Amino acid sequence: MADGSQPFEQARTRSFDYSVFNLEALMQLAELGRAVGIDLWNYEAPRGGSIRRALDHLTPYADTTKKWRGEQITPVDATRLLEALRMGELAFKDARYRAMIARMPQDRVRTSRVQLLYPPSV
């Protein structure tokens, strides 16, 4: 959607997890597109949806004090957003995503496979 929400994912019982999973899949597709000269990172759908808007919709929930509004039958794990935030930081060169990562439990960040796949920018 234009606001970055993913209604089909938000209708599920683990809506946060599925929203993040779907965003990660779109980001991986955007990386494949980059390899063949197609810019999906900055693509905007006819109704206004985009990868960046989806990331911005989920980013506030990296802060554990903000409660996810959708149904979530398992606890929300804010570090689930780590890969999407790091990919967003690298693709959009946006320090806001790095700042959200800095607020996450650093022991989880340091030991995440994301560090190997998408090293932090300097």
In terms of topology, how is this protein built?
Blueprint: H1 7-10, H2 15-35, H3 51-58, H4 82-92, H5 95-102, H6 106-110, H7 114-117
Helix pairs in contact: 2-3, 2-4, 4-5
β content, as a range?
A: under 5%
Structural class: mainly alpha
* Approximate helicity band: 40-55%
How far the N terminus sits from the C terminus, by CA atoms, comes to 33 Å
What's the order of the H and E elements?
HHHHHHH
Number-wise, the strands total 0
Number of helices: 7
Instruction: Give the domain tally.
Output: 1
Q: Could you list the spans in which at least 5 consecutive residues all have pLDDT below 50?
A: none
What's the pLDDT, averaged over the residues? 93
Quick rundown:
The chain has about 120 residues and is an all-alpha fold.
Structural overview:
There is one protein chain. The protein is mainly alpha-helical. The chain has one domain (7-117). Helix content is 50%, strand content 0%. The protein contains seven helices and no strands. The longest helix has 21 residues, at 15-35. It is globular and about 40 Å long.
Keywords:
122 residues; mainly alpha; 50% helix; globular; 0% strand; 7 helices
